[in-house]
Design brief:
With about 180 residues, the protein is mostly helical. It contains ten helices and no strands. Bound molecules: heme C (HEC) (2 copies).
């Protein structure tokens, strides 16, 4: 865990996060435009994502632009702000049959790192996201980016993704949105 997470978010952190409100809102929840839920994501993962957008390792026009001129302090402050918020996102509609199939695939290939059915993360030195309750639109877009190699995966996850059969990604997605965060 990075040192910056160890203190509570304060008004300075909120001031730094103001630049994010246009797209992620003050509450970090879904806006409907394809932005992910970032409220309650782990501090270290938000920092890692902002770093990846800043260096261009992850490509998204909006995120590349907003992170471009941010300092380390500003990155950590805005991450601390969103990590401290609760994820109170409403449940999304899902297909029970797909979600059931997805539960089995997840247990076999993904649970090792995305523990507790995607509510947690287990890798020691690499930060990871919470998948449970993330938005359908965002998860669908990330699966597509991973499959087309537009977004880099840790090697263990690349191996797991290679095992997916057609339809498996859709089943996993229904499983993750069926779960509260
Ligand atoms: C102009 C709109 C815009 C602004 C401003 C913006 N974001 Fe984003 N953000 C997005 C979009 C769109 C995505 C999805 C990118 C993708 O598909 O990879 C995203 C993705 C992210 C992710 C990745 C989440 C994940 O699960 O991997 C994080 C973290 C994030 N934003 C945090 C922030 C923070 C913190 C700020 C302010 C410093 C910010 N964003 C400002 C539009 C924006
Ligand atoms: C070896 C550990 C590992 C395994 C196994 C693994 N992942 Fe991951 N996963 C990660 C890490 C680390 C990240 C964060 C990558 C980054 O920082 O960009 C991640 C990110 C993701 C994301 C992006 C979420 C977001 O908020 O942007 C999705 C979706 C995902 N994994 C799905 C899966 C699925 C589905 C499986 C099984 C088929 C799987 N992962 C297996 C380690 C793993």
């Amino acid at each position: 865990m990075l040192a910056g997470a160890s203190r509570a978010a304060d008004s300075g952190d909120a001031a730094s996060a103001k630049r994010c409100f246009k797209c992620h809102a003050e509450d970090g929840l879904e806006s409907g435009d394809g932005e992910p839920i970032i409220a309650a994501q782990p501090f270290a993962y938000i920092v890692a994502a902002l770093d990846a957008f800043q260096t261009g390792a992850r490509v998204d026009k909006s995120m590349n632009k907003v992170t471009k001129s941010m300092t380390r302090e500003e990155i950590e402050a805005s991450a601390r702000y969103y990590a401290s918020l609760p994820n109170k996102s409403p449940r999304q509609p899902f297909d029970t049959k797909f979600a059931g199939k997805g539960a089995g695939i997840h247990a076999r290939l993904c649970e090792k790192c995305h523990v507790d059915g995607g509510r947690g993360f287990s890798m020691e030195k690499t930060p990871g996201p919470i998948l449970a309750g993330q938005t359908e639109k965002y998860l669908r877009a990330q699966f597509a980016q991973f499959m087309s190699l537009d977004r880099e995966m840790p090697s263990g996850m690349g191996i797991a993704m290679l095992e997916l059969l057609p339809g498996d990604a859709n089943a996993l997605l229904h499983y993750y949105i069926s779960r509260s965060p």
